[in-house]
Structure formats: structure tokens, C-alpha cells
Automatic annotation (TrEMBL):
SUPFAM superfamilies, alphabetized: Periplasmic binding protein-like II, Winged helix' DNA-binding domain
Every HTH lysR-type domain range: 8-65
Database matches in PROSITE patterns: HTH_LYSR
Record protein name field: DNA-binding transcriptional LysR family regulator
Family: Belongs to the LysR transcriptional regulatory family.
Alphabetical list of InterPro entries matching this protein: LysR_HTH_N (IPR000847), LysR_subst-bd (IPR005119), WH-like_DNA-bd_sf (IPR036388), WH_DNA-bd_sf (IPR036390)
Keywords in alphabetical order: DNA-binding, Transcription, Transcription regulation
Keyword Cell membrane included in the entry's annotation: no
Provenance organism: Nocardia fluminea
Bilayer-spanning residue ranges: none
A GO MF term: transcription cis-regulatory region binding
Amino acid sequence: MTLPPGTPDLEVLDLLVSVAELGSLGAAARRHGVSQPAASMRISALERRLQVKLLDRAPTGSQLTDAGRAVVAHARTVLAAVTDLVNDVDRLRAAQAPRLRIAASKTIADHRIPHWLAALRTDHPEVVISLEVENSTQVADLVRDGTADLGFVEGPHPPAGLGSRVLGADDLVVVVAPEHPWANRKSPVTLTELARTALLWREPGSGTRETVWDLLATAAPPASPAAELGSTGAIVAAARTGMAPAVLSRLIAAPDLVTGTLVEVPSADAVRLTRKFRAIWRRNTPPSGPGELLVDRAARLEIARGAVVELTTETAPSPVEGAR
């Protein structure tokens, strides 16, 4: 189909419709961000192209002619069709955009994911990301059942039955309130002491809980919790009261350590008080496209932070492990 000679452009039709809606050429010019003389010149050019008079110009203002009103009626139909076209194309573009559904434990979601996503978006702004935040066990479940394409968890072991890649490590610290007896102790606390002390714990399924429990169990059976709390925020608040010690990610404890509302207790086993950050996925669908790029960006950022990524039995020599 070839457009007939004299076909007007859409912008001048939109300007003419604004004249009809607002009642004056000056008001229409302001709506479109142009001067009144410029708007008048555009309408004049449209009149020459269509070879019909659209406006009656007078010192008191401009009025649409009968022909102008007829053109406006057609223009509204044309502009509405163009608007529908643009909206449909936007929907098609959104439907075809690469999408990635991820799930992450809260610590990673709060302190790592924003940086990883920003690094991915720098090179691939077209990728649409959705994020669900749960504890590590729940994240693994979301990956297993296909709700999430990719997960990020922390803990001492890779979740059973999933492919994974170690991205980095997170330091854990023993913290107490300033008035707690451990706040001024001279000797480092040992794993055995921690195991025999009633601590503030996260709920079962938390990556932090699993890490700390496994570490303490190597020294002695862990004592019953002083409290089990469903968020790190609740544990921080309880620790501030002096209720009991807690073992927290340094990322979580840092603000309170700076202000002095919590005190770090030196640990005789500090080198062991760490947990690993991992990317996880279903073994039969290793990350590709946006997922593989995100894992790569995350690993690079963790290395830049000084994280030492260990090559263990869960980590294949290739960039994406568990893909075999």
C-alpha cells in the first residue's frame, strides 16, 4: 500500500485536534511546546498540502472552518489508531523481552542482589528481572519446582539435587549488647562455648542457622535456643536488649557495630565462622542467557570484593557448574 499524495504527518494532525479541543491556536501551541507563530505556520503548511482552508484567522482568534472540523474528525480516528498501534507494539516488545525469575535469601537480596543486578543492567538493560525473597531452604524449593529460574542462597552445603556455583563467602560474627558479660571479655569465645550457650537463632531453613549449627555441632551438641526468630532484624533487636548472644552476618551486624549498639566478641575460631554464597539451579536446566550472565557478573563482583572462590566437588571447571 502506498500513501496518497498530500498525506499529512501525524504531529500536525495532533496539533489541529488540539486547536479543536482547546478552542484556540495559542493554547494548542502551548500544549505542544511550540510558539504560536510556529503553530500557525504548521497549520498553514497543512492547508497547502490538503488544499483546503482549515482555520479562519482573525485578530480576536482562530476558528475551525467546516472543512477543518471534518478533518479533525478524521484526524481523531487516525490518531486513535496510531495510539493503539504503538501500545500493541509496546506490549509485543515487553512480551519478547528476556525475563529472569530469581529467588534469594534475605541477606543476599538486601546486600548483594542490588549490586549484581546493576552490573547486569549496565550491559543488558533489556532483561526483565523478578525477585522473590525467602530463606535459603524456601529458595531451593522455588528453584526445584520451577517457580524460580535461578536462586541465590548461603550456607555450608549446596542444596541437594541442584546444580550450584560458589560465588563468594560471608563472614559471621558473634555479637552481644554492650551490657552483656561477653562484651568486655578478654579471651576469645570458642566454638565449644558457643555450642553450650543459648543463642538467638533464625528459624529452621535459614542458611545462617544451618551454617552456624553445623559449625557448633563439630565442637559439641548445640544448646537449646534462647529464642527462634523469623528475621535477622528481629535477632538484631533481641540481641540489643542483652537477651542472648547471636551469630550474624557481618553485613547485617555492621551498622550496629559502628554505632556501638552491638559489640563483636572475638572468636577463637574466627577463620571458620564463614558461610558461602551460592547460585543454584535445576540440574537439567543450567543457567543460560540472562541467568548465566547474572551468575558471571555476581562472581566477578565477589572476586573484586576479595572473596576467594573455592573449587570444590560442587564446582565444575567450566564457568557454569552442574551443567553436565
